[in-house]
Design brief:
The complex is a heteropentamer. By secondary structure, chain B is mainly α. Helices cover about 80% and strands about 0% of the residues of chain B. Chain B is built from 7 helices and no strands. In chain B, helix 1 packs antiparallel against helix 2, helix 2 packs antiparallel against helix 3 and helix 6 crosses helix 7. By secondary structure, chain C is an all-alpha fold. A two-stranded antiparallel ribbon of chain C has the order 1-2. The longest helix of chain C is centred in the middle third of the chain and has 32 residues. Chain C is globular, with a radius of gyration of 22 Å. In chain E, about 75% of the residues lie in helices and about 0% in strands. The longest helix of chain E has about 30 residues. The radius of gyration of chain E is 17 Å and the shape is elongated. The chains are: A mainly alpha, B mainly alpha, C mainly alpha, D mainly alpha, E mainly alpha. At the A-D interface, strand 1, helix 5, helix 6, helix 7 and helix 25 of A face helix 12, helix 14, helix 16, helix 17 and helix 18 of D.
Chain lengths: ~650, ~170, ~500, ~525, ~100
């Protein structure tokens, strides 16, 4: 079965080709069947592969399937090849699983859109790209997937391209990602420069030997890591390249759920975890990762506090949560990062789909200040959304509790400051999540009459995914229970991948049990505190938000406008580059270069005109020319002889 | 004696040329030219080129000058002598560039005295065989081809005169 | 007087004799032929040229110096005989229709073309300065008259007069130069001069003679600063004559120029190459730059011909076999392409001698083939491969490079870059601009067609497969460089 | 008699020219026949040229299909053609674009169809000749002779400002190539002095031992010719004008092939013949190339005219090619060559697409479009793919080339190459900016101009010429080995030449290679 | 005794005078006379050279020069007459139909 792992990405590709080329000719349900069916089969194959894989010895859990040599030039070689190890096995399960669920959900959500086949084609293309990304056996192929998911993101954000904001958002996503990719590709090249190969296995195996032999400059490794991380900040929306993700919410909600919450945006985390050994040898880079992660977690959460657009709140929450994952990687708790990635995929997809369900019901309204009281009208959505919120807030026993706790524990071990940043972020998270829950589902309905009239629960095709994900959000955490021996199954499963890195980082010693319990309790209390605050603000004393708004207006405005980062970027990069370009064009090109050329031409013609004027038509002046010629030649000879 | 004659004829020839280029009336110029030709013929005699001197008088002073004067009369040119004006600037330019060329040749002559190649036709030999005989022998033997070409040239001149001056 | 002692070898000037006789016959027959049948005279002229070619051909490969070191029949002069006869034939072919239309059908026209041709041939054949001077006069006088043959046309009169006055002026310079050279070197044939020069450094006055020679020949080939007559004379003269003038006298001038400067003056090459360098550069620049701003195609071509004189001069400066053969090759290709251009210019002209360049706008719509031909010729003049113009420029510039005159070659190529602009301007107008006038219906006569075919074929042949001509040119120029100590030793065959 | 015994290369080169001859005798009113004939000839040429690929010995670095006939014997000039792995692809690209250019002019060119097709066919022969000449003289002849048909294409069938653009094109190109002519002559005599016989043969000239100071001057002379053609910054200003005014087929050929003549020239002449000069001037080339990349991208961003935008993007793309070539690494040069092909396909396709729009709307201003995706979805899909190819999306052709170039430059031994590679890589960001922004403004949003509502989608003919391009775009993207493999030998030959001249001792290229083989394990 | 240089100087003076006259005078006929002067100067030099170098060629060439002068003059004057018929002028400064 392992031989067939290439089928996992290939099937969605087939779906893409079918839907992309003849999708507009075939009937809708065939499109859905192709779209979902291919992903489902991929999921099944992934499951089977996983099953076979898990039966192997932990040491033997590595499999490579090389299809063909892709780019071969001189000493450079990169193949189209897939590798299966615990990390990619987990990832492929998450991606195909969550992906399938969201595909199914999309049948309902996108049912009435004229671009239905196009939508499924793109979604399948995305699945293909994402699977390439996680199954790739070398950095270059990873980059292929990396860029391709970016493309799909671009296409799907701009799915409703007639809306300018959607098209703009798509473009922004792509370009900001490109900025990160610039770093990434340089990083890949540096890897080749350093190791002579881009294949994961050989790079990672060579590295320790080279370190021992002193054949590699640690500084170079740090640079490589920082460049790779630059790529990750782009894809995974971290400071300073997070700006595209909130805008990306212009896309259809299932897309946001799949790409901008569950899978694609976590690619950066995957990549950093994949390269954990390099990072392990570059502790400074790791510190940067941790710090950026923690900072992003806090920063994005703070913006999330005051946003009114339900999807944007979720977007900032995603940014923040990915920040946690990077924090995990940065402190060396790679397994925890992947664990959080998995659980986050469940509950964030759930939250997005829930939001989508709400929007579906209320005709696309996204402003939570205009909602309220949906609890009764949409009970299942409400329950599942609540589960998601509890999970993300880290309440026991929901999935987020375990994963977030593992991260915070790791962070504490590394540095209490990071832990403190994390824990503050957790508090903000639970506050803003429950702000959304309360404003949306509780309290008085703030809908206009004609809208509230139509509100209805979503169709089963949308609810079943919600329920599925809800269940996953509840039980998902139990694959990684801390403290109990053997409870951290995911950690053990992933250990072959991260083992070397954690060893190098010296994370072998175990935490003291009491300390761990303390930390868990603190984080639980903090999370509950956040929920309590939200209850106070949005259920009990609803005047409080307004009060604070008036009390500290400048702080509020700053946060509400997302710290003006977009504006600063616009001013610094977009506008200045644009005016610089216009200057280049209108001055350098037109005035200087063309001017010089035209000047020469003009000068030549000028000389020609002067000559024309000399040509007076008078015989005498012609004779004069001859006489002067004779005179000069004679003078030349006189001069020459005298010499 | 010869030296004196050279200076006399030379001065007269220059005077003739001066008349040619300075007189405003073309008839006067023609007379000046005639004068110049005559004195040149005299110089030829001084140079032991009596036959050339004769030809000079016959063809130049006789035929060519008549042609000039006929044309002047034919075209009745005396009436617009007044048009013959040149601006002082042109005059200065012309004279300076002309004297420049003269100066250059003179400089070449002055500083670098030439020692001509010496041929076999010494004056003694020439006086022995006779000047005309020598020239005739040369023209009709060594220079037979130029002589024939000259005849073609003259015919072309005739054709030109017929073609262009004929009224049609 | 002993006739046997005369070095009289009529065979060596047989083509010239044929041509001149033919000219006389035409003159004599002219009055007896009714106006409608005058065209037969052109047949006669062509016949004469053909016979001359046959004679030339029969003399091919001979090396004879005769007429007391005045005429050298050798490969060099044979090459030029062919070239001049070709020029004569082409000029006659393109003239027939034109002079009929312009009402200048005279027997004299053809006779004068023939006389001019004989003058050119003598210039190439002459190894004595007096023969060269006489040949030049024969050529010039005929051309003056030809230029003035449109007697009612004020421009034609004026062109003839200007050409004549300046021509006479410059030939006076040339004569003075010949005089000085004769006086200092004691000889007027190139063998004597060459011997004199190799005997030791020449007298200072000799250089004055060289200077005046440069003036005289510079005038003939239209080199700057002796070029000023060219635009006026070209513009005013009947166009068929202009075509002739632009190639014939130039080729003849260069033939004599090269012969004298290489055969005779090679020992003092360093004394004249500098001057010619400056002249060549000035000629190229002035010709090309002034051509940029011309509105009349004849004037434009006049400046173009000046520019080409500049390129050709490089062949003299280089002063080696490559350069000289390049010059020969260049003259041949220039002849073909320039005659071609003028022929099309005549055919496409506006009624009443309209040669404004803008009159050619949109010609390609009504006359696609003629426009195509014009384009080929213009491109050749501009030096685009695969045409003769490119090949000859390549040849002559590479000769310059070989001799180390890289600057000259660079200036040359820069100039041909400039020239592209004005040549293409005509192409632009013909192809890319809407016509501004009605093109008259055109009947391209047989003669004209033949002339066009010859020039087109030649232009392409010399561009694509020039080996034969290059071979020929290279084989004939060695005579210029091989200067015998004893004349007899080289020209051992004195008669045939 | 096997196919290798036939002068197959010459047949390919001259087939279009011969094919154009019958057109001179066809009545110009019979446009359908003329178009059909031209299409037939170009397709036939393409298929004939395929036999070059199939008979190509991929393991050889030598020139293959050599044909040599003495041409101008006295001057040592011969008709000598032959191809190696480098020229093979450019040759095939040319023949491949041949039928496409005919097809895309099918309904766009209605006037003087016969003359147009003749120009196209002659042009094709000229270009094919350039890519296969092994004699410098022959090369120059072809080099110049493709100028005129192109000039006519722009000047006659172009748009409003065509005459200016055509002249600018010719004058600029001439200005550069004339210097080259003098340099060729110099080389020619240099060879005569050194080897004792005249030869214009490239293979002979490769063996010359030229002192550095002379190399420098010759390099600059050749550089001017090629830099104008490429065009490298700051010699590029003719390109936007020429593109804007040229008819679609003209633009396609111009961008697709003509520009490659410049980069090809560097590879074929400058580097092998003036190796030391090339090595020492490489930093200078980097500066120009990188400036071109960034400059072209930035200026492209603010163009209001579609064709101008694509034209400036060509400046940027060709900068990549130059960078790769002067990296002197196998990766860089292979990437450069591949990128030449890529650019030919992608930019060619972009011009085809702009041409299709122009044919329908008679405008190229971006502001006149908008919202077309809804109206012409199939067109949009193809446009999208081409756009993505142009911005170097992995999986499509552009990426492979760009990546290899950046990689090759990065690992080059030249101390400046790393920084050049990094700056060049940032050009990829700008490429995304200007292409996507353009795409968005043309295709996305709502239809703002009423005329745009009734634009027709692609017809069968347009599909017929776009699909093959797309196929190749994808092919190169996912299986570049087809293209990289045949050129490997020749490229390695060049790299070895360069490294020999560099001296093995201080060669970082070798050091890198050593590291690459992994001796540290 | 007058030496060669004296004759040559005289000849040069005449030649220069001819040149100056050609440049200064406006009347075509006088201009032609100036050309004759220049030719005459050459003749003088030829004769002098021949005499002082003991050769005869110079004196023979004079003969041809005179012939050439005659033919040239005949042609020239007929051109002048032809022009005069059309333009009624012999002044060269009035002849500039063509200039650009």
């Amino acid at each position: 079965m392992l031989e067939y792992i290439w089928l996992i990405p290939a099937l969605p590709l087939i779906g893409f080709i079918i839907n992309g080329i003849i999708g507009f000719r075939i009937r809708k349900h065939v499109v859905s069947l192709v779209g979902c069916g291919t992903v489902f089969i991929s999921f099944l194959i992934a499951l089977m592969v996983f099953r076979e894989f898990i039966l192997l010895d932990p040491e033997q859990r590595f499999f490579q399937k090389i299809l063909y040599t892709w780019v071969s030039s001189g000493s450079f070689n990169a193949s189209i090849g897939f590798q299966l190890d615990p990390l990619s096995a987990v990832m492929s399960l998450v991606v195909t699983g969550v992906g399938f669920i969201i595909h199914v959900y999309s049948i309902g959500y996108m049912g009435h859109d004229p671009g239905y086949p196009r939508y499924f084609a793109f979604l399948n293309l995305f699945m293909f790209s994402m699977l390439i990304l996680i199954l790739a056996n070398n950095f270059l192929l990873l980059f292929v997937g990396w860029e391709a998911v970016g493309l799909c993101s671009y296409l799907l954000i701009g799915f409703w391209y007639e809306k300018k904001s959607a098209a703009d958002a798509g473009k922004k996503a792509f370009i900001v990602n490109r900025v990160g990719d610039f770093g990434f590709i340089i990083g890949v090249i540096l890897i080749f420069y350093t190791f002579g190969t881009v294949e994961f296995k050989s790079v990672f195996e060579k590295l320790p030997g080279m370190i021992k032999a002193g054949a590699v400059d640690p500084f170079l490794l740090t640079v490589i890591c920082l460049l790779l991380f630059a790529g990750a900040t782009g894809k995974s929306a971290q400071i300073p390249l997070y700006v595209w993700l909130p805008d990306a919410m212009e896309g259809p909600t299932p897309v946001s759920a799949l790409i901008h919450a569950a899978t694609m945006v976590t690619a950066g985390v995957y990549m950093v975890s994949r390269s954990c050994i390099i990072f392990a040898y570059a502790p400074y880079a790791l510190d940067v990762v941790a710090f950026i992660g923690a900072l992003t977690a806090l920063f994005a959460a703070s913006i999330g506090l005051v946003q009114n657009d339900i999807k944007r709140v979720l977007a900032y929450s995603t940014i923040s949560q990915i920040g946690y994952m990077f924090l995990a990687c940065g402190v060396g708790a790679f397994a925890a990062g992947i664990f959080h990635l998995t659980t986050h995929a469940f509950f964030k997809a759930l939250l997005f789909l829930g939001a989508g369900s709400v929007m579906h019901a209320i005709e696309g309204e996204t402003d939570i200040t205009k909602m309220g009281g949906l609890k009764e009208k949409m009970p299942i959505t409400h329950i599942t959304f609540l589960i998601g919120a509890l999970a993300i807030a880290g309440i026991f026993p929901f999935a987020g509790f375990f994963s977030k706790d593992a991260i915070l524990a790791g962070a504490f071990e590394r540095s209490p400051y990071l832990w403190f940043m994390g824990i503050s972020g957790a508090m903000l998270t639970s506050f803003y999540m429950f702000r959304v829950v309360f404003l949306t589902f509780y309290g008085e309905s703030r809908f206009p009459h004609e809208v509230s009239h139509h509100i209805h629960e979503s169709p089963p095709v949308m609810l079943i995914p919600l329920i599925t994900l809800g269940i996953l959000s509840i039980i998902g955490g139990f694959i990684g229970i801390p403290m109990i021996e053997g409870g951290n199954r995911i950690g053990e499963f992933l250990d072959p991948v991260f083992h070397n890195a954690t060893t190098i980082l010296g994370k072998a010693h175990h935490e003291d049990f009491l300390m761990e319990v303390m930390l868990i309790l603190i984080s639980l209390i903090i999370a509950l505190g956040g929920i309590y605050l939200a209850v106070m603000f949005y259920l009990k004393k609803t005047y409080l938000p307004g009060y604070f708004q008036e009390k500290i207006p400048s702080a509020y405005r700053l946060i509400f406008n997302k710290y003006y980062v977009d504006e600063i970027y616009d001013y610094l990069f977009v506008n200045s580059i644009k005016s610089f370009s216009i200057w280049l064009w209108e001055f350098i090109d037109t005035v200087i270069i063309d001017g010089a050329v035209n000047g020469i031409a003009y000068l030549t013609r000028g000389i020609g005109s002067i000559m024309r004027r000399i040509q007076t038509g008078f015989v005498q002046s012609y004779a004069l020319s001859i006489i002067i010629g004779a005179f000069v030649i004679l003078a030349y000879y006189l001069f020459r002889i005298r010499m | 004696m010869e030296g004196v004659l050279f200076w006399v004829f030379g001065a007269l020839a220059v005077a003739g040329t001066l008349v040619v280029i300075l007189s405003r009336n073309p008839v006067n110029s023609a007379i000046g030219l005639l004068f110049c030709f005559f004195t040149t013929a005299c110089l030829y005699v001084l140079l032991d080129a009596q036959f050339v001197a004769v030809i000079q008088v016959l063809i130049y002073a006789g035929a060519i000058m008549v042609l000039f004067l006929f044309t002047i009369m034919l075209l009745n040119l005396e009436t617009d002598i007044k048009k013959e004006v040149t601006s002082p600037g042109t005059r200065i330019l012309g004279i300076s560039i002309g004297s420049g060329i003269l100066f250059e040749i003179a400089l070449l002559l002055w500083h670098y005295r030439i020692t001509p190649f010496l041929g076999t036709y010494t004056p003694e030999k020439l006086s022995l065989t006779g000047n005309i005989q020598a020239i005739g022998r040369s023209i009709f033997r060594d220079y037979i081809l130029p002589f024939e070409i000259l005849s073609v040239l003259l015919i072309i001149g005739i054709i030109g005169a017929v073609v262009l001056a004929k009224r049609d | 007087m002993d006739p046997l002692s005369m070095d009289l070898n009529l065979a060596s000037i047989a083509p010239e004799i044929v041509i001149i006789l033919c000219g006389f016959i035409i003159i004599l027959l002219d009055p007896f032929i009714p106006y409608e049948k005058k065209r037969y005279l052109s047949y006669l002229a062509l016949l004469g040229c053909s016979v001359a070619i046959i004679f030339t051909f029969s003399l091919h490969g001979k090396r004879i110096v005769s007429f007391n070191n005045m005429i050298a029949l050798d490969g060099y002069s044979t090459f030029f005989d062919y070239l001049f006869l070709l020029i004569a034939i082409l000029s006659i072919l393109i003239a027939c229709d034109y002079i009929e239309e312009e009402r200048i059908l005279y027997g004299e026209y053809f006779a004068l073309i023939l006389f001019a041709t004989s003058g050119m041939m003598l210039m190439a054949k002459g190894v004595s300065l007096i023969i060269i001077f006489l040949g030049l006069e024969v050529l010039s006088l005929s051309t003056y008259i030809l230029a003035g043959m449109m007697k009612r046309d004020l421009k034609s009169n004026e062109a003839a007069l200007k050409y004549f006055l300046l021509g006479a002026f410059s030939s006076a310079f040339l004569l003075y130069g010949i005089t000085l050279i004769y006086g200092t070197a004691g000889s007027i044939d190139i063998f004597g001069i060459s011997q004199y020069l190799r005997a030791g450094s020449p007298s200072a006055l000799f250089f004055a003679g060289v200077a005046f020679l440069i003036v005289g020949f510079g005038f003939k080939v239209a080199a700057v600063p002796f070029h000023m007559w060219t635009p006026d004379a070209y513009e005013g003269a009947p166009t068929s004559v202009t075509a002739f003038m632009s190639v014939g006298p130039k080729a003849a001038g260069f033939a004599a120029f090269l012969r004298i400067f290489i055969s005779a003056l090679l020992p003092i090459v360093s004394d004249w190459s500098g001057i010619l360098w400056i002249i060549a550069v000035l000629t190229m620049f002035v010709g090309n730059v002034a051509a940029l701003v011309q509105e009349n195609i004849k004037r434009m071509l006049a400046y173009s011909s000046i520019a080409h004189a500049g390129y050709i001069t490089i062949g003299i400066i280089v002063a080696d076999e490559l350069g000289s053969s390049g010059l020969l090759f260049y003259l041949l290709s220039y002849t073909l392409m320039n005659i071609g251009v003028f022929t099309v210019a005549i055919l496409l002209r506006k009624e009443g001698e309209g040669y404004e360049i803008r009159d050619y706008a949109g010609a390609s719509i009504k006359h696609p083939i003629l426009s195509l031909l014009m384009t080929v010729f213009l491109l050749s003049l501009a030096g685009f491969p695969p045409t003769a113009g490119f090949m000859s420029k390549f040849y002559i510039f590479s000769a310059a490079v070989k001799k180390g005159y890289i600057g000259l070659a660079l200036i040359g190529v820069i100039n041909s870059g400039i020239s592209v602009y004005y040549y293409l301007r005509v192409v632009v107008l013909m192809y890319m601009v809407e016509p501004s006038r009605e093109f008259r219906p055109l009947r391209v006569g047989v003669f004209t067609s033949i002339a066009l075919i010859i020039s087109l074929w030649g232009t392409l042949q010399l561009g694509v497969y020039p080996t034969g001509i290059i071979n020929l040119a290279r084989s004939v120029v060695d005579v210029l460089f091989y200067i015998p100590l004893n004349i007899g030793s080289l020209f051992s065959i004195k008669a045939f | 008699m096997g196919i290798r015994d036939l002068p197959i290369l010459s047949i390919v080169i001259f087939m279009p020219l011969l094919g154009s001859l019958p057109l001179f005798f066809v009545k110009k009113e019979r446009v359908e026949f003329i178009r059909g004939w031209a299409l037939f000839v170009t397709i036939l040429t393409f298929f004939t040229s395929l036999s070059l690929y199939f008979n190509f010995d991929q393991n050889s670095a030598n020139f293959q299909f050599q044909e040599r006939i003495s041409w101008i014997h006295e001057l040592g000039i011969s008709y000598h053609v032959g191809i190696d792995g480098i020229s093979l692809w450019l040759l095939l690209l040319t023949t491949f674009l041949g039928p496409i250019t005919v097809l895309c002019s099918w309904s766009a060119i209605m006037e003087r169809v016969r003359d147009y097709m003749i120009c196209l066919l002659i042009l094709e022969t000229g270009i094919l000749g350039v890519f296969s000449s092994l004699d410098l003289f022959l090369f120059y002849v072809f080099w110049e002779s493709q100028l005129i048909p192109m000039y006519l294409l722009i000047g006659i069938w172009g748009s409003q400002n065509r005459i200016y653009a055509a002249l600018k094109f010719v004058i600029y190109t001439m200005a550069g190539s004339l210097m080259m002519l003098v340099a060729i002559m110099y080389l020619y005599f240099y060879h005569k002095n050194q080897a004792g016989f005249f030869s214009m043969n490239l293979l002979d000239l490769y063996n010359l031992n030229i002192p550095y100071s002379i190399q420098l001057i010759l390099f600059i002379a050749f550089f001017l010719a090629f830099a104008f053609k490429v065009p490298m910054f700051p010699f590029h200003t003719w390109l936007p004008d020429a593109h804007v005014e040229a008819p679609t087929a003209g633009s396609v050929i111009l961008a697709g092939i003509l520009l490659k003549m410049g980069t090809y020239g560097f590879l074929r002449f400058n580097i092998p013949m003036f190796t030391e000069a090339s090595i020492n001037l490489a930093p200078f080339m980097y500066i120009l190339a990188v400036t071109g990349i960034i400059y072209g991208a930035l200026v492209s961003m603010v163009q209001p005219d579609l064709k101008k935008l694509v034209a400036y993007s060509s400046v940027s793309h060709l900068g990549f090619v130059m960078l790769g070539i002067f990296a002197f690494t196998v990766q860089g040069i292979q990437g450069g060559i591949l990128q030449m092909v890529n650019h030919g396909l992608s930019t060619g396709a972009l011009f085809l697409i702009v041409g299709i729009l122009y044919e329908r709307r008679h405008t190229r201003l971006i502001a006149h479009f908008g919202g077309l995706s809804r109206v012409i979805p199939r067109f949009a899909a193809i446009f999208m793919i081409v756009t993505l190819s142009s911005i170097g999306l992995p999986g499509l052709n552009g990426f492979v080339g760009e990546f290899l170039i950046i990689l090759g430059t990065f690992i080059s031994s030249n101390p400046y190459s790393t920084i050049a590679a990094i700056i060049a890589a940032s050009g990829v960001i700008f490429a995304a900016v200007y292409m996507l922004w353009m795409f968005q403004r043309v295709m996305f949003g709502v239809v703002t101009h009423e005329e745009n509502r009734y634009i027709k989608d692609l017809n069968l003919r347009e599909f017929a010429y776009l699909i093959p391009v797309l196929l190749f775009i994808i092919w190169i993207g996912i299986y570049p080995a087809t293209f990289l493999r045949p050129m490997e030998g020749s490229v390695k030959g060049i790299v070895v030449t360069v490294e020999k001249k560099m001296g093995k001792g201080n060669s970082i290229v070798f050091a890198v290679d050593k590291r690459i083989t992994g001796d540290w394990r | 005794m007058a030496g060669l240089n004296h004759y040559l100087l005289l000849s040069a003076i005449m030649f220069s005078m001819g040149v100056v006259g050609f440049f200064l005078r406006r009347n075509v006929i006088v201009i032609l006379m100036c050309v004759e002067l220049m030719l005459n100067a050459s003749n003088l030099a030829l004769a002098a050279f021949a005499q002082f170098s003991n050769t005869i060629d110079g004196k023979v060439i004079i003969f041809f020069v005179i012939g050439i002068a005659a033919a040239e003059l005949a042609t020239g004057l007929s051109i002048v007459i032809c022009l005069f018929r059309n333009r009624e002028t012999v002044f060269v400064d009035e002849m500039n139909l063509m200039k650009q």
